[in-house]
Each structure stands twice: as C-alpha cells, then as structure tokens.
Design a protein that fits this description.
Number of helices of chain B: 5
Low-confidence stretches of chain B: none
Oligomer: heterodimer
Largest sheet of chain B: 2 strands, antiparallel
Strand content of chain B: 15-25%
Mean pLDDT of chain B: 90
Radius of gyration of chain A: 23 Å
Largest sheet of chain A: 2 strands, antiparallel
Strand content of chain A: 5-15%
Distance between the termini of chain A: 54 Å
Structural class of chain B: alpha+beta
Number of domains of chain A: 2
Number of strands of chain B: 3
Strand order of the largest sheet of chain B: 1-2
Mean pLDDT of chain A: 82
Largest interface: A-B, 46 and 45 residues
Shape of chain A: elongated
Radius of gyration of chain B: 15 Å
Order of helices and strands of chain B: HHHEEEHH
C-alpha cells in the first residue's frame, strides 16, 4: 500500500506533465490516502473509555433511521429531548455491551435477583441536573431499560460525562 | 371515530389525539412522529415525544389551563411519577406512583402534579411507556 502511494508521488514529481489513473484505482488511492491522513479512531474496549457520544457510536453505530433523528439541529426543546434520549440509549447500550464482554446487554426484568442501576440526578439552581447517586431496581422502574446500567459506577459515569444529554431530556 | 371535543379536565385525556387538542404539535414534532420506522430506538424517541405531550396536556388542564413546569428548587412541591412493574408476557404495567422533591431519574418530562394523574397516564398510555421502557 505504501509502495503504491510512493510510486505515484515519484511519478508526479517527474517532468512528465500528466499521469492518467483509472477512475477505480484513483478512488481506491484517495480512500487509502484519506485513511492514512484521517485514521479511524480505535473503538474503546472498556466502558470507562466512553467519554463522548461519538466514542459510543464506535461500539454501537446508529442506524440510518436513527441518523435521521440525530441530524435534527433545531431549537425545539422537546425535539432536543428526544434526540438526547436516543443518544443516551446508544451511550448506555455501548457501555453495557463493553461491560458484558462485548455482548449486547438487555436487562432481564423477570429476574428479581438482577440489579439495574440508574443515575439519580439532583437539581441545582443555575446549573441544572447533575449526577448524585445511583439507585437500583429489580422488577419495577421509572425510566425503563434504556437508561439503566449494569453497575452503579457506570450510572455515575454516564451522569457525569453526559450531564448535558440528561439535562436536555430532563428539563422542560 | 375521532371526536372534536377539547378535553377540559385531565381525566378526559385518554388518547394521544386528546392530548394534542390541548397541546398542539409543531412542525418538527409532527415530522418526528410521521417517521415510519421499525427501529425500536426511534419508536422509543417517538414515545417520549408523545408522553411529553400527554403529561403537558394533563398538567396544563390540572393547572387551570396554564402550562405547568415542575419547580425543582421547591422542595415542598412533590413531583409524581408512575412506577411500573414488569410482568413476563405482558410487559410493563402500572404498579404504584412515587414522588420526588429535588432528585429524579426521569426529570420533568414524565412527571405529574398528582399521584392520580401518574396512575391515569400509566394506565391509559401503557403502550407508550412500553415503547420507551423496552429495549
């Protein structure tokens, strides 16, 4: 791959005025060059590494339908809340997957022995909701499966690093 | 058949269309709800939008027609949420209500001014809660 790119460079620096590269090869070269210049980040391997929504997307890529909603850039606070819920869903799915040895995790609500953890947020005037402690549930819930985590540490991590998303969802 | 009667009490909000008569949708909200998708996460986002409209409509009617926004700085004001229980085969259904003062797991969007309202919403809009709650 590198030899090929060097060869083209060498050719273009010679006095020959033009070179012709077939379209398909040119596209391949541009793609290879692009990957070298803008390498794709490595997907995280631990849930603690998910610090941004973009990182979560490397583990759980959004579908086309989800991208249509994520593309919303307006100011309607209720729309922004729905986008935030979708983003938090992807974040929790990615974190739970990494904490579950790479296998997608779905809380088992029929299992009373399995704890499900949520971020419990406190409202502070002037700064909105922020992470406080986690709570757990067995078979009963307020926020359901989408915002729950396999451990209290994960719930706290999400509330800390994704406070802006929680606030978009929580605030009317 | 759709009725044209506008609800005057929160107890009258029994369908999403009822809620929309009290709190009409704007263009972008309509566009979101018009998305036809089998994607369960998109359907969950649509359910959140619908539940938001439902709770806003019910709280508005209970608040003499004025939109209600929970005051999280007021510890004396209770905010009520439905507490749902999972039953294998039938999903989540209403079990009880809880109230909070300044802490929350779901925020302002899904809370109500009274426990009776929380029970009413969870009973009449169980399908929306299930779309939101179930992965």
């Amino acid at each position: 791959m590198v030899q090929c790119i060097c060869a083209i460079h060498k050719t273009t620096t010679m006095k020959t005025p033009t070179i012709t590269i077939p379209q398909a090869e040119a596209e391949t070269l541009y793609k290879l060059l692009g990957q070298q210049l803008n390498p794709q980040p490595e997907p995280p391997t631990k849930w603690e590494d998910i610090l941004t929504f973009e990182t979560a997307c490397l583990v759980v890529p959004p579908t086309e339908d989800q991208l249509a909603l994520l593309a919303y850039s307006g100011t309607d606070k209720h729309m922004r809340a729905c986008v935030a819920v979708l983003k938090l869903t992807i974040v929790s799915a990615a974190m739970n997957k990494l904490a579950n040895s790479g296998i997608e995790w779905n809380p088992d609500w029929s299992n009373g022995s399995e704890y499900k953890y949520y971020a419990y947020l406190k409202f502070v005037a002037g700064s909105g909701f922020s992470g406080y402690v986690c709570v757990f549930a067995y078979a009963f819930t307020c926020p359901g499966s989408r915002l729950c985590f396999r451990s209290g540490d994960m719930a706290r991590h999400a509330a800390t690093h994704f406070a802006d998303l929680y606030n978009d969802f929580f605030n009317l | 058949m759709k009725t044209t009667t506008i609800p005057t009490q929160w107890q009258d909000v029994k369908t999403f269309d009822d809620a929309c008569k009290v709190v009409p949708l704007n263009d972008s909200q309509n566009a979101l709800l018009a998305l036809s998708s089998d994607d369960k996460d998109v359907r969950a986002a649509q359910a959140v939008m619908k539940l938001t409209i439902v709770s806003r409509a019910m709280n508005k009617l209970d608040n003499k027609g004025t939109e209600w926004n929970p005051d999280w700085t007021n510890w004396d004001e209770r905010k009520y949420f439905p507490w749902l229980k999972f039953v294998a085969g039938s999903g989540f259904s209403y079990y009880d209500f809880v109230y909070v003062n300044a802490y929350s797991t779901v925020g302002s969007r899904l809370c109500f001014r009274s426990g009776d309202m929380a029970r009413h919403a969870a009973t009449h809009f169980a399908d929306l809660y299930n779309d939101f709650f179930t992965l």
